[in-house]
Amino acid sequence: MISSKYFTINELTRSDTANKLKIDNEPKEEATKDNIMELMKFLDGVREGWTKECKDKGYGDAAIVVNSGYRSEALNKVVNGSKTSEHLLGTAADIEPKNGRNKEFFEWLRTYLSDKQFSQLINEYPDKNGRPSWVHLGIKGRYEHPYRCQILTIK
Fold first, then answer.
1. What pLDDT, in 10s, does the model give residues 60-86?
2. What backbone phi and psi angles, to 5 degrees, belong to 118?
3. Whole-angstrom distance, CA of residue 141 vs CA of residue 78
4. CA 85 from chain center: how many Å?
5. Cα distance between residue 41 and residue 59, in whole Å
6. Interatomic CA distance for residues 28 and 127, integer angstroms
7. Residue 2's pLDDT band (boundaries 50, 70, 90)?
8. Closest of 62, 113, 119 to residue 87, by C-alpha
9. Is 91 helix (H, G, I), strand (E, B) or coil?
10. pTM flag (> 0.90)
11. Which residue, of 59, 138, 144, 155, is most buried by count of CB atoms within 10 Å of its CB?
């Protein structure tokens, strides 16, 4: 099984929607598998930094849950994903901290990423207090400038 220090390829390809609808969500291309491995290694760094933050602030469990990682074209279409979604490349994941500190996690990520190359950090569907439902982290896009370093909010 392909894995990094904290994540497995199964976590980055698992989809309840794909399972329910019997959609094949296994990456076929080696380049996509390589992208997923690169994403897992990037997320390892996020996990290690978040672990330190949680320890310093007393936030508790620092585990990071992957809600959505790689998406096949069929799955992406069913979930109404963008036709240019980085999920299709295996370079993006929707994540949240297991401890429920989504707002703190997003704010910490803004600082953590300030000296790193990445594509997008998105606060997705925040509540009235700015707490995201989840955080989208894209590490590399398909564009002329794959490291856009965009920080966005989707309401």
1. 999 999 999 999 999 999 999 999 999
2. -155, 170
3. 21
4. 12
5. 23
6. 37
7. confident
8. 119
9. coil
10. yes
11. 138
